[in-house]
């Protein structure tokens, strides 16, 4: 168990036992429930710090609680009729305890972070190292605290070619002073973030890092060949990475469609008052044109469909865009690279607010109900963008386009067209129901929060 795992195990077990005392179970049954609960937490691997993301931890929690609940149900006697009261109290106990443990788990990472965090040194000074630093700082759940960088290009014996960032947020040590950096910051974890390292350089860097700290992690160059279903296997001394994907996950696809319909119905109900609000808001600002915008988009298997949105631009926006690109070469270049404009003068005042909160997408619930779109999926691309999609096209059209997806939750306006394609292809290769759940939660947080990732 990790240090934080020991702390969480103690706190959660104590809280679970105190909660059990509030329910009318015999004492021997309480002890059995507690033993089952603890066993399920260990079987799920919750205290080994295998989860680097809060979503992974939530998945472990759900698995442990569902299995624990089923195992606890088997302890009741069903010989004299169904024990409705006992089952009710057990269900209520597990529901309340799950909420308590989720909250406790969240704050345990905050309360004890300084005492259980890993002091991290990032080997590399390129964009991958900078990205890894940002992820560590943003994702405090991983308990990784990056305290410095190591520049390997300063060592003539290493064949590392990389450009140093103009300004890195932490001190940069030359490779020759790796030991000093480890000693200065009491480093226990090294992250190697140079994906293009050659075999000899990787062997030397990894070997030295492994001699200095107990934990060494490597960011590999994968370029889409590996997904989250990949496994590392020992094939009689040879390292093999096995990658597989279920081509026809019928059960999950059926469940996804059912979830789409269930979500689309209340979405359509909310659409009515929201449409009234948009109509009034537009009229107050002098905009008396139609509030809906209909446009052809590329759907699953390349089929075209009509997508509905609230109009956020002035009428005739496409013709205006053509005129703007003819007059200004910079605008043409920006649009051809990003397929959008950062400071787009065609967006109305009401439209800007709708885009920032993603409310302009609400009419797409009609597309979801029809089956043209899904709640979560790749971005719905324009037919004219097909040529620019290149090799990613087949991956993108393999799934129904979604109201939200990887692009909306992982950068949105901060990513260019090619990066959006990579995110959508990533979604296809790694899709499962759990990924949809995570993206929906992140979308809700983005809509309710005050982040800087609004649409333009």
UniProtKB/TrEMBL annotation:
Gene3D superfamilies found in the cross-reference section: NAD(P)-binding Rossmann-like Domain (3.40.50.720)
Subcellular location per the Swiss-Prot or TrEMBL entry: Cell membrane; Membrane
Top-rank taxon, per record: Bacteria
Annotated membrane topology: Multi-pass membrane protein
UniProt keyword Acetylation, yes or no: no
GO cellular component: plasma membrane
Classification via InterPro entries: Bact_transf (IPR003362), EPS_sugar_tfrase (IPR017475)
UniProt signal peptide: none
Residue span(s) of domain Bacterial sugar transferase: 256-448
Pfam families: Bac_transf
Transmembrane segments: 60-81, 87-108, 261-280
Alphabetized UniProt keyword annotations: Cell membrane, Membrane, Transferase, Transmembrane, Transmembrane helix
Annotated family: Belongs to the bacterial sugar transferase family.
PANTHER family: COLANIC BIOSYNTHESIS UDP-GLUCOSE LIPID CARRIER TRANSFERASE (PTHR30576), UNDECAPRENYL-PHOSPHATE GALACTOSE PHOSPHOTRANSFERASE (PTHR30576:SF4)
Protein name: Bacterial sugar transferase domain-containing protein
Organism: Faecalibaculum rodentium
